[in-house]
Amino acid sequence: FCSNVKVTNFYLRGQDDGIGFTHDPASWGNMLPKRNPISQNIIVQGGFIESKIAHGVRFGGEQLTIGDTTYLIDPDVAYKNVLVDDIVIYGVPDVDGTPREGAAITLNDTRDNATVQNDNITISNIRGRNTTTLGGPEVVSIIGYAEDTSKRNWKNVKLHNVNVEADENGAGPKAFISGVEDLEISDCKFGGQRISTARAYSGVQIAHSDRITFRDTTIYHRGSGLYPVSIVNFNEVTFIDTIVAGGDASDAGGTNEAACIYLGPNGGGAGRLTIDGLTLKDAVLPIEFSATAFATDGIKARNITLRGITTPTFPVALMNAIIR
Predict the structure, then answer these.
(1) Is 90 exceeded by the pLDDT of residue 25?
(2) CB 183 within 8 A of CB 214
(3) Which end of the chain is flanked by fewer CB atoms within 10 Å, N or C?
(4) What is the pLDDT of residues 26-57, one digit of tens each?
(5) CA distance 260 to 220
């Protein structure tokens, strides 16, 4: 539980997390004076991190079990006003074959009883190379609930100019994000592995999050029969000047992504989709909708470009909404 912390100009190499902020429930009973439940005004800026097996930077907390006793995280603790900026992160499989599973950036809060949201988290100007071999996310991992999918333990999360590449032998998605309210992804590039390598996962996976915006972002991902971008159980998503691409027909195996983007909004006909500048490349379909309907007049779309799409047809609801 710390506030007004600034970590700058560092060079870190380690076995586990490069920099980890965590709510440690095992120590609460011994903390005097009484703890401040909000850790806020934290800056991690300007440095290099190499982790052999785990995360580059991690914020979060999880219950601990020591012997026969399990210590839970209190519901009122949270992070607020966090900046992670200008960092090179490097994590690739070691020559000794030790498996890797940590993302470059991880925000992890799996409490279903949280009463306070982690708020105003900015991840910006992150570059480097990170590869997982056990199927975990390579660039960004954000988890905002355990089993209660209505929880949004993270709020106002901004990913800006994140450009962490993945190696050909990586096994995971580029990003997995869940339980976020107000998520903005801008000026980011998710890609890096040889485009001929098809993964067993979709590229950027987002679930149970509200008000999602992609802006000036490029996503390249091969996923056999899957999607470079998959977003489900959301209420609103916006794409502005964004490129989403699978593997082109000259790649080994050809074009086999089912669609560039898969969208499955929340039930009840309340989902909304806005597109203003979207290039879709190298997949069977440009966009695929789930069976769940969007809101009436909930789709607005213009400036869509298709390249290398095998079957260049849109869902009817999107076709009817495209502004010519």
Answers:
(1) no
(2) no
(3) C
(4) 555 555 455 678 899 999 999 999 887 788 89
(5) 9
| pLDDT computed for residue 152 by the predictor | 96
Contact 132, 103 (CB under 8 A): yes
**88 DSSP β-pair partners:** 48, 127
The torsion defined by the Cα of 246, 250, 256 and 262, in degrees rounded to 10, comes to 20
Distance, CA of 316 to CA of 294 (rounded, Å) = 12
Helix (H) or strand (E) holding 140, with range, is: strand 140-143
Tell me the pairing of strands 64-66 and 69-71: antiparallel
Helix (H, G, I), strand (E, B) or coil at 183: strand
Full DSSP string of 208-239: EEEEEEEES-EEE--BTTS-SEEEEEESEEEE
pLDDT digit string (tens) for 163-220? 988 776 666 788 999 999 999 999 999 986 666 667 778 889 999 999 999 999 999 8
Farthest CA pair distance, the chain: 65
Residue ranges in the chain assigned as alpha helix (H): 316-321
Radius of gyration (C-alpha) of the chain in whole angstroms: 20
Number of CB atoms found within 10 A of residue 40's CB: 17
237: left (phi over 0), alpha (psi -120 to 50) or beta: beta
Residue pair 131/169 in contact (Cβ under 8 Å)? The answer is: yes
SS3 for 190? Answer: strand
